[in-house]
């Protein structure tokens, strides 16, 4: 995995629960953390929904300090037991329902996991922290999204940490609700929370419902590339390895109770991103039957309530903690396309009946 930060010189090992550690970003973070801090105890807590995958943790089976627990973040007795028996001092909370299109089809699971699940973790961690005498070193790190800030026009300034919340989808509304709970637990109870709101991630182990992996796999299978609306929506692309190093920096140096925005400095229109993916595939897989891959592009009905533009102002994390992204979108996409080309054994089993049904519902 890509790891860029250096471990602090003197450091007491942490006992960390990583929720959602079998999902896309969570698993990249588990690889990052186990590589950076092999002396830490790491407990991956993941319900293994359609988006969770044990294969994302391949290579870590022999890691002596890693424990995998299949379980739900809404299961309070389970959380209480893990916090106590593992003497947990840190929670890094990724677990969520994360896909906007699925939140439009069925918002209930988003409210349950993203809001009730986050509440359950906060309550359990608060009790655990109190019972331990409120130690200074405890941390609850909540991973959130730039989507809580709403949608920008082409000329609006990028989101800062003080941009008012204006969530537009059931997904972003449920993430906003969880962010407010985290903030309130610090303000009211003094719980040592940290929060990061980041832009669109991409890289290895990305489930093929999201734009980049879906386009990569459809090109490989010679299927149409469905671009929503006019393709002019803008996202700020953040390579997942950069996101992991940013969270690491915040956990070790962030000020308790604060929020840090994380972005990639890579604003790209969707259609231009799809062109880049097509051109990379043409270069890296010249034997594919449909050539050029751009011939597969199809404009389809827009996503309801589709946010036009997201952009992150990451000045705060840069000036206060010295973090900046290290991977350009050109380099990150090249690495990602190469990864999907070399890991057909990873993505092929994900194209299950459930996936096909989901695909028909969204793209029919
Ligand atoms: P993902 O959908 O790939 O993975 C989510 C993981 O959470 C899966 O492993 C799933 O099994 C697990 N999970 C779901 N419900 C659970 C529950 N009730 N209990 C325990 N585990 C459960 O998501 P991702 O893209 O890796 O996103 C991780 C986090 O980062 C989310 O909180 C998301 O909101 C946030 N985020 C993602 C992006 C992005 O571009 N992907 C950007 C900003 C923020
Ligand atoms: O901004 C951070 C968010 O990024 C995260 O909080 C979410 O968890 C993550 O899913 C992502 O949300 P988006 O909706 O921006 O990502 P998605 O990959 O679904 O879509 C990216 C853009 O591409 C968006 O403008 C919609 C468009 N799109 C997407 C798909 C799946 C298409 O045009 N066609 C598609 O088939």
TrEMBL record:
Cofactor: NAD(+)
Swiss-Prot/TrEMBL catalytic activity: dTDP-alpha-D-glucose = dTDP-4-dehydro-6-deoxy-alpha-D-glucose + H2O
Alphabetical keyword list: Lyase, NAD
NAD(P)-binding domain boundaries: 17-336
Name this protein carries in UniProt: dTDP-glucose 4,6-dehydratase
UniProt GO MF annotations: dTDP-glucose 4,6-dehydratase activity
PANTHER family assigned: DTDP-D-GLUCOSE 4,6-DEHYDRATASE-RELATED (PTHR43000)
EC code: 4.2.1.46
Family statement drawn from the similarity comment of this UniProt entry: Belongs to the NAD(P)-dependent epimerase/dehydratase family. dTDP-glucose dehydratase subfamily.
Class of this enzyme: lyase
Pfam family of the protein (one): GDP_Man_Dehyd
Biological processes, Gene Ontology terms: nucleotide-sugar metabolic process
NCBIfam families assigned: dTDP_gluc_dehyt
TM stretches of this protein: none
InterPro entries assigned: dTDP_Gluc_deHydtase (IPR005888), NAD(P)-bd_dom (IPR016040), NAD(P)-bd_dom_sf (IPR036291)
């Amino acid at each position: 995995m890509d790891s860029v930060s250096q471990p602090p010189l003197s450091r007491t090992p942490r006992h960390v629960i990583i929720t959602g550690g079998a999902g896309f970003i969570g698993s990249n973070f588990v690889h990052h953390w186990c590589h950076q801090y092999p002396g830490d105890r790491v407990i991956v807590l993941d319900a293994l929904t359609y988006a969770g995958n044990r294969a994302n943790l391949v290579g870590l089976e022999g890691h002596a300090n890693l424990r995998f627990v299949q379980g739900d973040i809404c299961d309070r007795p389970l959380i209480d037991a893990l916090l106590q028996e593992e003497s947990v001092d840190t929670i890094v909370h990724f677990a969520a329902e994360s896909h906007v299109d699925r939140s439009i089809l069925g918002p209930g699971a988003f409210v349950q996991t993203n809001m009730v699940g986050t509440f359950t973790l906060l309550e359990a961690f608060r009790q655990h922290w109190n019972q331990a005498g409120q130690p200074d070193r405890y941390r609850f790190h909540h991973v959130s999204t730039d989507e809580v800030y709403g949608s920008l026009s082409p000329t609006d300034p990028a989101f800062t940490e003080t941009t008012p919340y204006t969530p537009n989808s059931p997904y972003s509304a449920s993430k906003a609700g969880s962010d407010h709970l985290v903030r309130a637990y610090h303000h009211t109870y003094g719980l040592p929370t940290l929060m990061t709101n980041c832009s669109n991630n991409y890289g290895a182990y990305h489930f093929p419902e999201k734009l980049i992996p879906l386009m990569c796999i459809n090109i490989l299978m010679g299927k149409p590339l469905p671009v929503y609306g006019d393709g002019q929506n803008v996202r700020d692309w953040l390579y997942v390895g950069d996101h992991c190093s940013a969270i690491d920096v915040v956990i070790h140096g962030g000020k308790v109770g604060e929020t840090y925005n994380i972005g990639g400095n890579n604003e790209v229109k969707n259609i231009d991103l799809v062109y880049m993916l097509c051109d990379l595939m043409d270069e890296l897989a010249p034997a594919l039957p449909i050539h050029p891959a751009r011939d597969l592009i199809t404009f389809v009905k827009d996503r309801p309530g589709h946010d036009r533009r997201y952009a992150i102002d990451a000045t705060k994390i840069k000036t206060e903690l010295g973090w900046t992204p290290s991977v350009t979108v050109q380099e990150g996409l090249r690495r990602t396309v190469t990864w999907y080309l070399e890991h057909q054994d990873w993505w092929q089993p994900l194209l299950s009946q459930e996936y096909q049904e989901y695909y028909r519902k969204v793209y029919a």
